[in-house]
Amino acid sequence: MTSHATGTFDLDSWDAEKPFHEGAGTKQTRVRVGKTFHGDLVGTSVTELITVESAEGGPLAYVGIETVHGILHGREGTFVLQHSAGSDDGTPATQWLRWLIVTGSGTGELTGIRGEGRIVVGADGTHSWSLDYTLG
Predict the structure, then answer these.
(1) How many domains does the chain fold into?
(2) Which tens digits make up the pLDDT trace of 59-81?
(3) What is the CB neighbour count within 10 angstroms for residue 8?
């Protein structure tokens, strides 16, 4: 049976390194992000991202791996999310942010978790999320 979870998260830290590649109108940067989750998932995470920005500084895309420690609908454990995100034109209006739960990454009461979700950034900068998952 598939369960649906929703909530918000706070960005606690955003530590970007110096860009490791610049050219062809873009720059690529490694970023380490810390988050606190609220809602159906209560917990924290650490994410390692590779971002692509336009020469003007607008976000174009990112990929990443996020390790989540928390309680999801009353079940405690950890799992890993694989991120994929982009924007058709570098603006929030065309942005899409997706994540997949890495199969086999669940621990504790979240062992066997599988699923996928989305992140939405509101006009005021708040981050909300949704996650559809199963526990095997």
Answers:
(1) 1
(2) 889 999 999 999 999 999 999 99
(3) 15
